Amino acid sequence: MDTNTAPGSLPSGSRGSSTPKRVILVSPRGYCAGVDRAIATVERALQIHGPGVYVRKEIVHNSHVVAALRGQGAIFVDEVTQVPQGKVVVFSAHGVSPQVRQAAAERSLITIDATCPLVTKVHKEAIRLANSGMEILLIGHAGHEEVEGTQGEAPDSIVLVEHPEDAQTIQVEDPTRLAWLSQTTLSVDETRETVALLRERFPGLMDPPSDDICYATQNRQAAVRQVAPDCDLVLVVGSANSSNSVRLVEVALAAGAGAAYLIDDLTQIQSFWLEDVNTVGVTSGASVPDHLVREVVTHLRTQGFDDVIEHQDIEEKLTFALPPEVR
């Protein structure tokens, strides 16, 4: 792909000007280490066991990835109770609660755990804090698989905080023995706001030993934050149930993009979005195959956006080993 500026540089004076139509292709984008590991885990399980490997929930939150794996023979279910006794089941990248593991054991299922190691870290923090008698304020979205899994590790010790305004109303048992954790795919800015509001009420609130929001979520948000002020439009490729993809749209708008939309693929681009637009930023969530992004860029070229500029904020090199069951 054409690169007309050095990595990390931005076009000058592009927004709202008479310069040629252009695309700022944002990086990092696409697969993070945890997603790459999870998808490879299912593919390897299919190689070892053949078609008919079950996967609890979507392995990652992307409709195209799920469809591709289904085409290879993976069977996606909502709960392990839907898996026939003794069969192979893969736990998704978002993690599961101990109750799910117990249900799988009761059905004599062969389990393969594709939980992202960064999610596992949050689980271990929750267990450690609960065992030490701390109450945990878990910042996250109700109903998200990752939150359900973390809550399941210490259900009697965790209070869910969904929004900054919830910080004003939640009730705790002992404000002097209080810590916070978070879902790994949240908005960095909103999480900081929530923590600040919580600390106003509970000055002794203890921080996690390390940041729970994963490196990939933070890197993608930081890169979008840099380019958004220069963009009339930002297109985020990702599925609607992908928390980190939805957050990228919010970050782009908050950082000054003229408009921002979440799209599963190029077919969801509305032609009127491109009217009176000179600069389009394009990025993707952490569970999106890069070919979907490239197809969006190719489509934009056909609409006159011939000038494609690569913006790279940081290079990601982290990798995770596959689960031992499929190595």
Can you describe this structure?
The protein has 327 residues and is an alpha/beta fold. The chain has helices at 33-49, 63-72, 98-106, 117-131, 145-153, 188-201, 215-227, 243-254, 290-302; strands spanning 22-27, 54-56, 75-77, 88-91, 110-113, 135-139, 158-161, 178-182, 233-237, 260-263, 279-284, 307-312. The strands form 3 sheets. It has a 5-stranded parallel sheet with strand order 10-9-11-1-12, sandwiched between helices. The chain has a 4-stranded parallel sheet with strand order 3-2-4-5, sandwiched between helices. Strand 9, helix 8 (243-254) and strand 10 form a beta-alpha-beta unit. Helix 4 packs parallel to helix 5 and helix 7 runs parallel beside helix 8. It is flat and about 60 Å long.
Low-confidence stretches: 1-14
Q: Mean pLDDT across all residues, rounded?
A: 94
> Beta-sheet strand percentage?
15-25%
What would you call the quaternary organization? Answer: single chain
Describe the sheet with the most strands: 5 strands, parallel
Features:
327 residues, alpha/beta, five-stranded parallel beta sheet, four-stranded parallel beta sheet, flat, disordered N terminus
Topology:
Elements (H helix, E strand, L loop, with lengths): L21 E6 L5 H17 L4 E3 L6 H10 L2 E3 L10 E4 L6 H9 L3 E4 L3 H15 L3 E5 L5 H9 L4 E4 L16 E5 L5 H14 L13 H13 L5 E5 L5 H12 L5 E4 L15 E6 L5 H13 L4 E6 L15
Parallel strand pairs: 1-11, 1-12, 2-3, 2-4, 4-5, 6-7, 6-8, 9-10, 9-11
Helix pairs in contact: 4-5, 7-8
Structure, briefly:
The protein has helices at 33-49, 63-72, 98-106, 117-131, 145-153, 188-201, 215-227, 243-254, 290-302; strands at residues 22-27, 54-56, 75-77, 88-91, 110-113, 135-139, 158-161, 178-182, 233-237, 260-263, 279-284, 307-312.
